[in-house]
Amino acid sequence: MTVRTVRYGGLLAVLTILMVATVLTGCADDTPDAIAPEPPAAENGDGAQVPEADEALVLVETKCSGCHALSQVWAADYDRAGWEAAVARMEDRGLQVTPEERETIIDYLVEN
């Protein structure tokens, strides 16, 4: 066994560990651009209700930016079935949403 073989074997082992760790943390598609912001309350500082579309946008931005750039989300051109499949894949990879949040996200992405 040569030194080169040992070196490449060690590098391969490190890369394998990093890939497995990435998949297990639920961020297999991309690295996060930034930490996702906390969603705002249902009321703004004046006590006025935040429009429902804004709440849906904040939900999409908060949940989707945890693992990849939002430009990836906005560039995707899926119909309802495509977004349902995409969100299901993300849930398989660690996305945690309630059934209501899932529907809100899908509805927003289909409409926009």
Architecture overview:
- The chain is an all-alpha fold and 112 residues long.
- It has helices spanning 3-24, 52-64, 70-75, 80-92, 99-111.
- The protein has one domain.
- The protein contains five helices and no strands.
Helix-strand pattern, N to C? HHHHH
Share of helix among residues?
55-70%
> Which structural class should the secondary elements be placed in?
mainly alpha
Q: How would you state the average pLDDT, rounded?
A: 74
**Count of the separate structural domains:** 1
* Proportion of strand residues: under 5%
* Shape estimate: elongated
Unreliable sequence segments: 28-45
Which features does this protein show?
single chain, 112 residues, mainly alpha
What is shown here, in short?
This protein has helices at residues 3-24, 52-64, 70-75, 80-92, 99-111. It has 112 residues and is an all-alpha fold. The chain has one domain.
List the helices and strands and how they pair.
Blueprint: H1 3-24, H2 52-64, H3 70-75, H4 80-92, H5 99-111
Helix pairs in contact: 2-5, 4-5
